[in-house]
Specification:
- The chain is of the alpha+beta class.
- It has a domain of about 270 residues: Orthogonal Bundle (Cytochrome p450).
- About 50% of the residues lie in helices and about 10% in strands.
- Strand 1 and strand 2 form a beta hairpin.
- The chain starts with 15 loop residues before the first helix and ends in a 6-residue tail after the last strand.
- Bound molecules: protoporphyrin IX containing FE.
- Protoporphyrin IX containing FE binds next to helix 13 and helix 17.
Length: about 425
């Protein structure tokens, strides 16, 4: 006699196989354990939230704090939460680690400097960088799109936007390169790079403050200093932490938007042809919906950053205790069939695409207009300049990075007919 069928076991999370395709495991969680307690590879225990409705609620829930002081004692003691090296470099007071009212004040200040007008004015520079990096490998007929294109483009773009002098930008490229290796580099390398970056930014802020006239330079750091000088308070440490979080939040995310996006286009030839036509004809609308769909389908931020329960609460029918960490799985929520019809289909003309790839609520991505500009320009540039772009390796041979928050490829080898300049 057979008893009732046992519920299938929870698939293994955070293995290498999981990293290459986490979506089946997320589908299982959404269905069987939508708010699921798990032990992360770091040893910290956290709740994973996978359904769209719960995810959206959690991202905007004021009972969930961004401040790590609310982390329960046992887990906090392990010191594994946050950006490696940020504690030592005194960079903790940034937007993703604080709650209102401090968050409201800092976000208002940075929003004054990070305006849509400033981003729109930046479009020619993003195009120039896109063309220059494509030029650098176009004659070879092959390239690694992560290292030669997706990685350098955003780092030079953000450096320009912040006002890091061109002669210092290669240092940033090196420090950022170390940060993106996630422990793959020499021991302590990430912490050392974060510290060097922090030291450099503090000095740059100081120099810019000294030389700032009312009509001074038009870069973002000068804009931040000016905003703080007009009545509202921004300490030098807060300004350095702000510059750092703009770099940190805006760099690897954009690398992976370009990397994951191009990879998925190469795996979906019909959709790629659609976007290629849109890019050639300057169809901005399809380019825009296309990049949003690439973000929903395989976005760069797999899990939102840490949140901590400030009191006992219920989420998705599950009881969460005060001090427990909560991780919202954006990649799972954005494939929820309750919200997106045919969620596992890549449909670049998808409408009603309110994905959570940029988050939701007061921490909604500040850099979304810049990310959209960079994503559209980079992907359209590649498709128009290298029209027969194809994968240079079997998809099974590609390796994904193992980090918790970000989803991205280690390398993306491609081939194409060489193009003379
Ligand atoms: C495709 C690229 C990008 C994606 C997918 C992305 C995604 C996100 C997400 C999901 C959040 C919310 C995290 C949470 O609530 O835990 C966020 C916040 C943030 N992002 Fe982005 N981001 C991107 C690019 C950028 C860029 C280019 C910048 C700036 C240069 C930037 C700056 C920020 C900042 C400062 C925050 C914190 C906002 C706050 O706490 O108020 N991001 N981003």
């Amino acid at each position: 006699m057979t008893g009732p069928a046992a519920a299938p076991a929870c698939p293994e999370l955070f293995t290498w196989e999981f990293a290459s395709d986490p979506y089946p495991a997320y589908a299982w969680l959404r269905e069987h354990a939508p708010v699921h307690r798990t032990r992360l590879p770091s040893g910290v225990e956290a709740w994973l939230v996978t359904r769209y409705t719960d995810a959206r609620q959690a991202l905007a829930d004021t009972r969930l704090s961004k401040n790590p002081v609310h982390h329960s004692e046992a887990a906090h003691g392990k010191g594994k939460v946050g950006i490696p090296g940020e504690r030592g470099a005194n960079l903790m007071t940034h937007l993703l680690n604080i709650d209102p009212p401090d968050h409201t004040r800092l976000r208002r200040l940075v929003s004054k400097a990070f305006t849509p007008r400033r981003i729109a004015r930046f479009a020619p520079r993003v195009q120039e960088l896109t063309d220059a990096f494509i030029d650098s490998f176009a004659e070879r007929g092959e390239a690694d799109l992560i290292h030669e294109f997706a990685f350098p483009l955003p780092i030079y773009a953000i450096c320009d936007l912040l006002g890091v002098p061109r002669e210092d930008q290669d240092d940033f490229r090196d420090w950022a390169g170390m940060m993106i290796r996630h422990g793959g580099g020499p021991r302590g390398g990430v912490a050392r790079s974060v510290k060097k970056m922090r030291g450099y930014l503090a000095e740059l802020i100081h120099r810019k403050r000294e030389s700032l006239g009312d009509e001074g330079a038009d870069d973002l750091i000068s804009g931040l200093i000016r905003a703080s000088d007009h009545g509202e308070h921004l300490t030098e440490n807060e300004a350095a932490a702000m510059a750092f979080i703009l770099l940190f939040a805006g760099f690897e995310t954009t690398v992976n938007l370009i990397g994951n996006g191009v990879y998925q286009l190469l795996r979906h030839p019909e959709q790629r042809r659609l976007l290629q036509k849109a890019a050639a004809e300057g169809d901005e609308e399809l380019l825009a919906t296309g990049v949003e769909e690439l973000l929903r389908y395989d976005g760069p931020v797999e899990l939102a950053t840490w949140r901590f329960a400030t009191r006992d609460l219920a989420l998705g029918g599950q009881r969460i205790a005060e001090g427990d960490p909560v991780l919202v799985v954006l990649a799972a929520a954005d494939r929820d069939p309750e919200r997106f019809p045919g969620p596992d289909v890549l449909d670049l003309s998808r409408r009603d695409n309110q994905h959570l790839g940029y988050g939701h609520g007061i921490h909604y991505c500040l850099g979304a207009p810049l990310a959209r500009l960079e994503g559209r320009t980079a992907i359209a540039g590649l498709l128009t300049r290298l029209p027969d772009l194809r994968l240079g390796a079997d998809p099974d041979e590609l390796r994904w990075r193992g980090g918790l928050i970000m989803r991205g490829l280690r390398a993306l080898p491609v081939e194409f007919t060489p193009v003379r300049r």
